[in-house]
Protein backbone atom coordinates (compact mmCIF):
# COMPACT_ATOMS: atom_id res chain seq x y z
CA UNK A 1 0.00 0.00 0.00
CA UNK A 2 1.28 3.46 -0.92
CA UNK A 3 0.99 6.10 1.79
CA UNK A 4 0.16 9.65 0.63
CA UNK A 5 1.69 12.63 2.39
CA UNK A 6 1.19 16.37 2.55
CA UNK A 7 4.02 18.90 2.20
CA UNK A 8 4.29 22.03 4.33
CA UNK A 9 6.18 24.08 1.75
CA UNK A 10 7.81 26.82 3.77
CA UNK A 11 8.73 28.78 0.64
CA UNK A 12 5.11 29.58 -0.19
CA UNK A 13 3.31 30.27 3.10
CA UNK A 14 3.92 31.96 6.43
CA UNK A 15 4.35 30.04 9.69
CA UNK A 16 0.80 30.34 11.04
CA UNK A 17 -0.69 29.31 7.72
CA UNK A 18 1.66 26.32 7.48
CA UNK A 19 0.48 25.03 10.85
CA UNK A 20 -3.15 25.56 9.90
CA UNK A 21 -2.57 23.66 6.66
CA UNK A 22 -1.05 20.60 8.31
CA UNK A 23 -3.90 20.50 10.84
CA UNK A 24 -6.35 20.42 7.93
CA UNK A 25 -4.23 17.78 6.20
CA UNK A 26 -4.40 15.58 9.28
CA UNK A 27 -8.18 16.01 9.41
CA UNK A 28 -8.42 15.24 5.68
CA UNK A 29 -6.72 11.89 6.15
CA UNK A 30 -3.23 12.37 4.75
CA UNK A 31 -0.95 9.59 6.01
CA UNK A 32 2.08 11.74 6.87
CA UNK A 33 3.57 15.17 6.35
CA UNK A 34 6.94 16.61 5.39
CA UNK A 35 8.41 20.11 5.75
CA UNK A 36 10.97 21.94 3.66
CA UNK A 37 13.74 23.83 5.46
CA UNK A 38 14.94 26.91 3.54
CA UNK A 39 16.37 30.35 4.22
CA UNK A 40 15.28 31.64 0.78
CA UNK A 41 12.47 30.70 -1.59
CA UNK A 42 13.62 29.48 -5.00
CA UNK A 43 11.66 32.22 -6.74
CA UNK A 44 10.46 35.59 -5.46
CA UNK A 45 6.89 34.71 -6.48
CA UNK A 46 6.82 32.08 -3.71
CA UNK A 47 7.43 34.82 -1.18
CA UNK A 48 8.22 33.04 2.11
CA UNK A 49 10.89 31.24 4.13
CA UNK A 50 10.05 31.01 7.87
CA UNK A 51 12.18 28.97 10.24
CA UNK A 52 11.07 25.40 9.65
CA UNK A 53 11.91 24.12 13.13
CA UNK A 54 9.63 26.61 14.86
CA UNK A 55 6.87 25.61 12.45
CA UNK A 56 7.50 21.95 13.22
CA UNK A 57 7.30 22.55 16.98
CA UNK A 58 3.98 24.35 16.57
CA UNK A 59 2.72 21.63 14.25
CA UNK A 60 3.63 18.94 16.77
CA UNK A 61 1.42 20.65 19.35
CA UNK A 62 -1.43 21.44 16.95
CA UNK A 63 -1.72 17.87 15.60
CA UNK A 64 -2.02 14.49 17.29
CA UNK A 65 -1.69 11.78 14.63
CA UNK A 66 0.06 12.85 11.45
CA UNK A 67 3.81 12.05 11.29
CA UNK A 68 6.19 14.98 10.74
CA UNK A 69 9.47 15.05 8.84
CA UNK A 70 12.11 17.43 7.51
CA UNK A 71 12.36 17.19 3.73
CA UNK A 72 15.17 18.03 4.04
CA UNK A 73 17.49 19.68 6.54
CA UNK A 74 21.12 20.31 5.63
CA UNK A 75 23.39 19.66 8.68
CA UNK A 76 26.53 20.96 6.97
CA UNK A 77 26.97 24.75 6.99
CA UNK A 78 23.98 26.77 8.23
CA UNK A 79 23.40 24.26 11.05
CA UNK A 80 26.11 22.40 12.95
CA UNK A 81 25.23 18.69 13.24
CA UNK A 82 25.30 18.85 17.06
CA UNK A 83 22.57 21.50 16.91
CA UNK A 84 20.55 19.44 14.40
CA UNK A 85 20.70 16.49 16.78
CA UNK A 86 19.31 18.63 19.62
CA UNK A 87 16.50 19.98 17.44
CA UNK A 88 15.55 16.53 16.18
CA UNK A 89 15.54 14.98 19.65
CA UNK A 90 13.33 17.79 20.92
CA UNK A 91 10.96 17.36 17.99
CA UNK A 92 10.67 13.63 18.68
CA UNK A 93 9.66 14.43 22.25
CA UNK A 94 7.21 17.17 21.29
CA UNK A 95 5.56 14.98 18.66
CA UNK A 96 5.51 11.90 20.92
CA UNK A 97 7.45 9.79 18.45
CA UNK A 98 6.01 11.12 15.18
CA UNK A 99 9.15 12.79 13.84
CA UNK A 100 11.65 11.66 11.20
CA UNK A 101 14.84 13.56 10.47
CA UNK A 102 15.35 13.95 6.73
CA UNK A 103 18.87 15.10 5.83
CA UNK A 104 20.56 16.14 2.61
CA UNK A 105 23.71 17.73 1.20
CA UNK A 106 21.97 21.08 0.84
CA UNK A 107 21.71 23.97 -1.58
CA UNK A 108 23.86 27.06 -1.93
CA UNK A 109 20.60 29.05 -1.94
CA UNK A 110 20.24 28.51 1.81
CA UNK A 111 23.69 27.70 3.10
CA UNK A 112 25.56 30.73 1.70
CA UNK A 113 23.94 33.03 4.25
CA UNK A 114 26.48 32.19 6.98
CA UNK A 115 29.48 32.80 4.70
CA UNK A 116 32.48 30.57 4.22
CA UNK A 117 31.78 29.56 0.63
CA UNK A 118 29.96 26.60 -0.85
CA UNK A 119 31.95 23.33 -0.94
CA UNK A 120 31.99 21.07 -4.04
CA UNK A 121 29.66 18.10 -4.02
CA UNK A 122 32.29 15.51 -3.07
CA UNK A 123 33.20 17.54 0.01
CA UNK A 124 29.54 18.04 0.89
CA UNK A 125 29.02 14.29 0.89
CA UNK A 126 32.05 13.84 3.16
CA UNK A 127 30.56 16.47 5.46
CA UNK A 128 27.17 14.75 5.43
CA UNK A 129 28.72 11.41 6.36
CA UNK A 130 30.56 12.97 9.28
CA UNK A 131 27.46 14.91 10.34
CA UNK A 132 25.34 11.75 10.50
CA UNK A 133 28.05 10.10 12.62
CA UNK A 134 27.86 12.99 15.11
CA UNK A 135 24.05 13.05 15.19
CA UNK A 136 23.80 9.31 15.82
CA UNK A 137 26.42 9.47 18.56
CA UNK A 138 24.46 12.20 20.34
CA UNK A 139 21.22 10.22 19.97
CA UNK A 140 22.91 7.39 21.88
CA UNK A 141 23.32 9.56 24.99
CA UNK A 142 26.33 10.51 27.05
CA UNK A 143 29.00 13.07 26.25
CA UNK A 144 30.34 13.23 22.71
CA UNK A 145 33.72 14.64 21.75
CA UNK A 146 34.63 14.54 18.07
CA UNK A 147 37.51 16.04 16.13
CA UNK A 148 37.03 15.17 12.49
CA UNK A 149 37.91 16.44 9.06
CA UNK A 150 35.07 18.94 8.92
CA UNK A 151 33.57 19.26 12.43
CA UNK A 152 34.59 19.57 16.03
CA UNK A 153 32.36 18.66 18.96
CA UNK A 154 33.57 19.37 22.48
CA UNK A 155 31.90 17.33 25.23
CA UNK A 156 28.36 17.72 23.87
CA UNK A 157 25.38 15.95 25.37
CA UNK A 158 21.65 15.92 24.69
CA UNK A 159 19.87 16.29 28.02
CA UNK A 160 16.39 15.59 26.66
CA UNK A 161 16.38 12.38 24.65
CA UNK A 162 13.38 10.37 23.46
CA UNK A 163 13.21 6.65 24.22
CA UNK A 164 13.46 6.03 20.49
CA UNK A 165 15.57 8.46 18.44
CA UNK A 166 14.01 9.81 15.26
CA UNK A 167 14.74 7.70 12.18
CA UNK A 168 17.20 9.37 9.83
CA UNK A 169 16.51 9.70 6.12
CA UNK A 170 19.01 10.82 3.49
CA UNK A 171 18.08 12.48 0.21
CA UNK A 172 19.60 10.92 -2.91
CA UNK A 173 20.27 12.09 -6.44
CA UNK A 174 23.18 9.91 -7.62
CA UNK A 175 25.55 7.08 -6.76
CA UNK A 176 27.45 8.88 -3.97
CA UNK A 177 24.35 9.91 -2.07
CA UNK A 178 22.79 6.48 -2.59
CA UNK A 179 25.88 4.92 -1.01
CA UNK A 180 25.59 7.21 2.00
CA UNK A 181 21.87 6.55 2.34
CA UNK A 182 22.24 2.80 2.02
CA UNK A 183 25.00 2.65 4.61
CA UNK A 184 23.91 5.33 7.07
CA UNK A 185 20.18 6.02 6.80
CA UNK A 186 17.02 4.37 8.08
CA UNK A 187 15.12 5.48 4.98
CA UNK A 188 15.78 7.07 1.61
CA UNK A 189 14.37 10.32 0.22
CA UNK A 190 14.07 11.36 -3.43
CA UNK A 191 12.27 13.93 -5.58
CA UNK A 192 12.41 11.91 -8.79
CA UNK A 193 10.74 8.54 -9.53
CA UNK A 194 13.98 6.96 -10.72
CA UNK A 195 14.11 3.26 -10.00
CA UNK A 196 17.87 3.38 -10.51
CA UNK A 197 18.23 5.48 -7.37
CA UNK A 198 16.44 2.86 -5.31
CA UNK A 199 18.47 0.07 -6.90
CA UNK A 200 21.68 1.90 -5.96
CA UNK A 201 20.31 2.45 -2.45
CA UNK A 202 19.67 -1.29 -2.16
CA UNK A 203 23.16 -2.16 -3.43
CA UNK A 204 24.66 -0.19 -0.59
CA UNK A 205 22.56 -1.69 2.20
CA UNK A 206 19.15 -0.11 1.77
CA UNK A 207 17.15 -3.26 1.07
CA UNK A 208 13.97 -3.32 3.12
CA UNK A 209 14.22 0.29 4.29
CA UNK A 210 11.39 2.79 3.61
CA UNK A 211 11.47 4.95 0.46
CA UNK A 212 9.87 8.40 0.46
CA UNK A 213 9.26 10.40 -2.73
CA UNK A 214 7.82 13.83 -3.42
CA UNK A 215 5.68 15.12 -6.27
CA UNK A 216 4.59 18.72 -7.04
CA UNK A 217 0.98 19.18 -8.17
CA UNK A 218 -1.14 22.20 -8.99
CA UNK A 219 -4.82 21.74 -8.24
CA UNK A 220 -7.39 24.29 -9.35
CA UNK A 221 -10.89 23.93 -10.85
CA UNK A 222 -9.60 26.08 -13.71
CA UNK A 223 -6.69 24.29 -15.37
CA UNK A 224 -5.27 27.46 -16.93
CA UNK A 225 -5.05 29.02 -13.46
CA UNK A 226 -3.31 25.90 -12.16
CA UNK A 227 -0.78 25.98 -15.00
CA UNK A 228 -0.12 29.71 -14.53
CA UNK A 229 0.48 29.22 -10.80
CA UNK A 230 2.80 26.25 -11.38
CA UNK A 231 4.81 28.22 -13.93
CA UNK A 232 5.04 31.28 -11.69
CA UNK A 233 6.21 29.42 -8.59
CA UNK A 234 7.65 26.04 -9.61
CA UNK A 235 9.33 26.37 -13.00
CA UNK A 236 12.70 25.89 -11.24
CA UNK A 237 11.75 22.28 -10.51
CA UNK A 238 12.93 20.95 -13.87
CA UNK A 239 16.47 22.33 -13.58
CA UNK A 240 17.66 19.21 -11.79
CA UNK A 241 19.58 18.74 -8.58
CA UNK A 242 23.03 19.52 -9.99
CA UNK A 243 21.86 22.99 -11.01
CA UNK A 244 19.54 23.69 -8.09
CA UNK A 245 22.21 22.89 -5.52
CA UNK A 246 24.63 25.48 -6.91
CA UNK A 247 22.52 28.60 -7.58
CA UNK A 248 22.98 31.16 -4.78
CA UNK A 249 19.91 33.43 -4.93
CA UNK A 250 16.30 33.61 -6.17
CA UNK A 251 17.47 36.02 -8.87
CA UNK A 252 19.75 33.27 -10.20
CA UNK A 253 16.76 30.92 -10.37
CA UNK A 254 14.79 33.62 -12.19
CA UNK A 255 17.56 33.91 -14.78
CA UNK A 256 18.03 30.16 -15.14
CA UNK A 257 14.30 29.62 -15.78
CA UNK A 258 13.54 32.62 -17.98
CA UNK A 259 12.92 30.46 -21.04
CA UNK A 260 10.83 27.79 -19.32
CA UNK A 261 7.29 27.99 -20.71
CA UNK A 262 3.95 27.18 -19.06
CA UNK A 263 3.64 24.22 -21.43
CA UNK A 264 7.01 22.93 -20.22
CA UNK A 265 5.78 23.03 -16.64
CA UNK A 266 2.39 21.50 -17.42
CA UNK A 267 4.08 18.58 -19.16
CA UNK A 268 5.80 17.52 -15.93
CA UNK A 269 3.40 18.69 -13.19
CA UNK A 270 -0.26 17.60 -13.07
CA UNK A 271 -2.49 20.68 -13.24
CA UNK A 272 -6.25 21.11 -12.88
CA UNK A 273 -8.81 19.00 -11.05
CA UNK A 274 -8.87 15.71 -12.95
CA UNK A 275 -7.97 13.09 -10.32
CA UNK A 276 -6.93 10.64 -13.03
CA UNK A 277 -4.12 12.99 -14.08
CA UNK A 278 -2.86 13.11 -10.50
CA UNK A 279 -3.08 9.33 -10.17
CA UNK A 280 -1.02 8.90 -13.33
CA UNK A 281 1.58 11.34 -12.00
CA UNK A 282 1.91 9.29 -8.82
CA UNK A 283 2.11 5.99 -10.70
CA UNK A 284 5.84 6.19 -11.68
CA UNK A 285 6.76 6.60 -8.02
CA UNK A 286 4.65 3.64 -6.97
CA UNK A 287 6.00 1.47 -9.78
CA UNK A 288 9.60 2.45 -8.95
CA UNK A 289 9.09 1.18 -5.41
CA UNK A 290 8.32 4.25 -3.32
CA UNK A 291 6.05 3.30 -0.43
CA UNK A 292 5.41 6.91 0.60
CA UNK A 293 4.77 9.86 -1.69
CA UNK A 294 4.39 13.42 -0.40
CA UNK A 295 2.35 15.76 -2.59
CA UNK A 296 3.32 19.43 -2.89
CA UNK A 297 0.35 21.63 -3.71
CA UNK A 298 1.81 24.68 -5.45
CA UNK A 299 0.66 28.05 -4.11
CA UNK A 300 0.30 29.13 -0.51
CA UNK A 301 -3.20 30.49 -1.08
CA UNK A 302 -4.35 27.27 -2.78
CA UNK A 303 -3.85 24.88 0.15
CA UNK A 304 -7.28 24.84 1.78
CA UNK A 305 -9.13 24.09 -1.44
CA UNK A 306 -6.57 21.42 -2.37
CA UNK A 307 -6.82 19.72 1.02
CA UNK A 308 -10.63 19.69 0.92
CA UNK A 309 -10.60 18.33 -2.65
CA UNK A 310 -8.06 15.71 -1.63
CA UNK A 311 -10.24 14.50 1.23
CA UNK A 312 -13.28 14.12 -1.02
CA UNK A 313 -11.74 13.13 -4.33
CA UNK A 314 -7.98 12.67 -4.63
CA UNK A 315 -7.12 10.52 -1.64
CA UNK A 316 -9.91 8.00 -2.37
CA UNK A 317 -8.75 7.84 -6.01
CA UNK A 318 -5.12 7.27 -5.01
CA UNK A 319 -6.02 4.62 -2.47
CA UNK A 320 -8.15 2.82 -5.00
CA UNK A 321 -5.27 2.87 -7.49
CA UNK A 322 -2.41 2.02 -5.13
CA UNK A 323 -3.99 0.75 -1.93
TrEMBL record:
Organism the protein comes from: Streptomyces bungoensis
Keyword match Oxidoreductase: yes
Keywords: Oxidoreductase
Lineage: Bacteria, Bacillati, Actinomycetota, Actinomycetes, Kitasatosporales
GO MF annotation: an example: oxidoreductase activity, acting on paired donors, with incorporation or reduction of molecular oxygen
A Pfam entry, by short name: Bac_luciferase
Domain called Luciferase-like: residue spans: 7-290
Taxonomy, superkingdom: Bacteria
UniProt-recorded name of the protein: LLM class F420-dependent oxidoreductase
This protein's record includes keyword Oxidoreductase: yes
UniProt region (Disordered), positions on chain: 203-223
